[in-house]
Amino acid sequence: MICLVYYTTLLAALITSMVSGLPNRRSMVVLDSRELPAHFATGGAPNPNTILNLKIALTAADRDSLEQALFDVSTPGNALYGQHLSFEEAKTFAGPNPDTIQAVTSWLNENGITNITTTGAFDDWLAFSVPISTANSLFEADFRLFTEIGGQTQLTRTLAYSIPADLQPHINLLHPSTDFVRVSKGPKFHIPVPASSSNNTARVLSTISSCNTAGVTPTCLQELYGIPNTKATQSSSTLAVSGFDNEWPQTADLKSFLTTFATDVASTTTWNLQTLDDGSDPQSAGDAGLEANLDTQYTIGVANGVPVIFISVGENNPDGMDGFLDIMNNINGQTSPPHVLTTSYGFDEPDITATQANQLCDAYMIAGTRGVSVLFASGDGGVSGSQSQSCDIFIPTFPSGCPFLTSVGATQGVSETAASFSAGGFSNIFLQPSYQTTAVASYLTALGTTNAGRFSTNGRGYPDVAAQGVNLEIVNGGATSTVDGTSCASPIFASVIALINDRLVAAGKSPLGFLNPLQVLYANPSALFDIITGDNPGCGTNGFPAKAGWDPVTGLGTPNFASFLAAAGV
After folding, report:
1. 347 and 208, same structural domain?
2. Pick from 108, 418, 556, 569: most CB atoms within 10 A?
3. Do 107 and 236 belong together in one domain?
């Protein structure tokens, strides 16, 4: 009996010793979850031994102070206005605390994961590779194969994942995980413009003879918006163009475009190339990209003399957002980032979760603190999203719904009415920022009960501004054509900002940076030409009507260069 008790006690001690050598299973909490998007179908279970390349986004040391810094440096009248942050200053706020890195690294190590690398502009990502079976166990996930219905996109994703509850203050999200991003782009080949008239009496538009041609050209835009053809002088004031989806600009097409449509600009002018995620810019006959050619031709052709950078983002992007986050990490990590960034791509807000949207939106916030004006085309589906589609409830686009960037809608005709495809509406993720609450409230009051229940009345409204988006002349693959889309409007508006920045820098002042709180936008809408006719149909409705003041079709209106320049203090 004594022997039995002895051995029973010894066995219990051994078991206790063995268990104590293993990490305790922590209490878990769901960090992100979603329903399966309607445009994807489950493709089955993947091989559990398939390797996943994962990244954990770490929380910022002081995210709230970073946002405050953005509005401090972007709001005229503030003592810190124009004092944009250096890389090191931004990193102080945006980078993770050392205890955050230690806590997450220790958890991964406890689970046998040691192949960890630190990435990101501010060392705010931990990257590692594990088999799917390990990822499922570690994050209480269910990674499966998903296929786009009617498309070619195939993804390995999970509809939910968890992390230890004690690590929730340290982890923002896991990439890739619950994202089902389908990047959409314009422009579209020309759709005939319907005859229309405008009550806008701000300009005598009948005198704009340069616009009475087959299509809109840089010369037309100069006369329409009062954009000078004087060459910029400041090499440090740069304008960057985002390139995605294997879209590549062609030097031969640019030379033909400048020779034909922008004779003020030397035909030898070209762009500077930056690449990431295995991006490139091949120049063979079949490599002409409609979007890339449009964006480079209208930035170089309108912003005469401003150095243009084409950032080619390849398909080797591990950010889970088709390179959208990678390009911002790249820009935010630069000592001297571009003063303006224009992007003519986007996707529908429901394609990503609120967790992911906030992560990407914060990257645009960081860029704003660094003095970068971030502009995005609002999309081409009216109220039905980035592209026209069937729906009952209005579909917001993203990143346009992010409050830390400037969204650009489209107009058409020299008398400027809203382009019917101009995507606009209200975010279901982001609330209205303070800089637009008065303007949005006025619009909603005038709108009344129209479209009631189809959109969030508390959401961030977009677009913020607009520019010409129909019948633009371009050269693509050696052929001249005309195209439509808000992707036409964003590089035009970006060019206006770049030219104003050139004047500011020449005067020893800071570039404009984040535009929306400026007196030239929401605080001084008279600096733009108000568009009061047209609408953006979709979802079986007429969409939103353009009205006096801000509206979710053309925003505050199109650029009036002279007024904009004066309001900017040049």
Report:
1. yes
2. 418
3. no
Same domain, 221 and 114: no
Known binding residue 311? Answer is no
Cα dihedral angle (346, 352, 356, 360), rounded to 10 degrees? 0
Per annotation, catalytic residue among 256, 487, 490, 495: 487
Asked if residue 367 lies in contact with residue 341, where contact means CB atoms within 8 angstroms, the answer is yes
286 marked among binding-site residues:
no
The number of folded domains in the chain is: 2
Q: Which of 291, 326, 348, 484 is catalytic?
A: 291
Q: Is position 555 annotated in a ligand binding site?
A: no
Start-to-end Cα distance in the chain? 97
Question: Does the model's pTM come out above 0.85?
Answer: yes
Question: For the chain, which ranges sit under pLDDT 50?
Answer: 1-22, 190-206
136 lies in which domain range? 28-59+96-175
Contact 249, 320 (CB under 8 A): no
Backbone angle region of 251, left / alpha / beta, with phi > 0 → left and psi within -120 to 50 → alpha: alpha
Predicted local distance difference test score (pLDDT) of residue 187: 63
Q: DSSP readout, 44-113?
A: EPPPTT-EEEEEEEEPPS-HHHHHHHHHHHHSTTSTTTT-PPPHHHHHHHHSPPHHHHHHHHHHHHHTT-
Handedness of CA 6, 8, 10, 12 (dihedral sign): negative
Q: Which residues contact 173 (CB under 8 A, 6 or more apart)?
A: 31, 32, 56, 57, 355, 356, 359
Asked if residues 246 and 288 have their Cβ atoms less than 8 Å apart, the reply is no
| Positive/negative CA dihedral, 557, 563, 569, 570 | positive
Q: Answer whether 94's CB lies under 8 Å from 363's CB.
A: no
Residues 6+ apart with CB under 8 A from 376: 342, 343, 344, 346, 399, 400, 405, 406, 407, 408, 490
For 368-396, the pLDDT digits (tens) are 999 999 999 999 999 999 999 999 999 99
Smallest Cα–Cα separation from 155: which of 164, 163, 144, 165? Answer: 144
Q: Is 295 marked active-site?
A: yes
Residue 82 placed within a domain: no
Q: 192 and 166 in one domain?
A: no
Shared domain for 151 and 203, answered yes or no, is no
Give the pLDDT confidence of 444-453 residue by residue, as tens digits.
999 999 999 9
Contacts of residue 453, defined as CB under 8 A and 6 or more positions apart, other chains included, come to: none
Active-site option among 32, 67, 247, 295: 295
Is 326 tagged catalytic? Answer: no
Final residue of a structural domain among 148, 175, 202: 175
The pLDDT of residue 520 is: 67
Q: Is 291 a catalytic residue?
A: yes
What does the pLDDT read at residue 213? 64
Neighbours of 277 (CB within 10 A): 18
How far apart, in whole angstroms, are the C-alpha atoms of residue 376 and residue 386?
Answer: 12
DSSP state of 345: E
459 and 351 in one domain? Answer: yes
Question: Amino acid identity of 510?
Answer: S
Query: Residue 408: which of 314, 503, 303, 489 has the closest Cα?
Result: 489
The answer to whether the annotation marks 44 as part of a ligand binding site is: no
